[in-house]
Amino acid sequence: MLQQLIDIVRRAGELICNARDIEKDTHEKTGASDLVTKYDVAVQAFLKKELLALVPEADFLGEEGEHDTLTKPWVFVVDPIDGTTNFVRNMFYSNIAVALVHEGSVEYGVVYNPFTDELFSAKRGGGAYLNGRPIHVSDHDMAHAITMCGSTIYDRSYTDRSFALMRQLYDLGLDFRRFGSAELDVCYVACGRVEVFFECRLNPWDFAAGSLILTEAGGSITRLDGSPIDPCCAGSVWATNGICHEVLSLLH
Length: 252
Ligand code: IPD
Ligand code: CA
Fold this sequence. Notes:
28% of the residues lie in helices and 29% in strands. It is α+β, with helices and mostly antiparallel strands. The mean pLDDT is 96.
């Protein structure tokens, strides 16, 4: 199953790498920071067709267009392009994310940045991989931690909270980054490039696949209140190398 998912996601990556004149085919959804291109729509259509051919008994929850009411035990949670603004601006930090969830538990996760050809993957209980090589979180403590964050741009009611948290983590740690693609950010924690990622609110397709890759790589992921994430529902995300997870109790 994992290899079949990887093959489908890699083929979807070709659609993204062959994109031209992206800005011309871009529209605002809810505002200037919430964009959709014709490639988001085309990649989702491709993934929906291929993934449901592979597991016809699954529901499909994707970012673009109407969502199924989830009634079946198996669900694909899919972002055709996570990091759409980066994609439109040619910043090469975007990914395709596919999670296969069974009764609330992510069983398979694939996150692929086609621009760098970095493919992160995991099967529950089988470890996490980057281009087929095992990955693991770092063992840095908070004093040596780089924090990545998302700014919850689609809902500015979270802005003060986001920046207050970032300021505290900046003071506790080594430095911070904001790259613009939540699934890849979680995978960067998984492979030990950074130690912490948080965002005050994300949709499930922004973290579902990465959540399994991170835990299979030895990391931890919860909501910001410490409760478990739900891979089919929106919520906050606190994703760490495990060592830094307890820092959550110091934040206010
Ligand atoms: C967005 C990216 C971004 C995060 C936003 C997400 P999209 O996803 O992951 O880093 O800050 O909250 O919605 O819209 O580019 O798929
Ligand atoms: Ca998206």
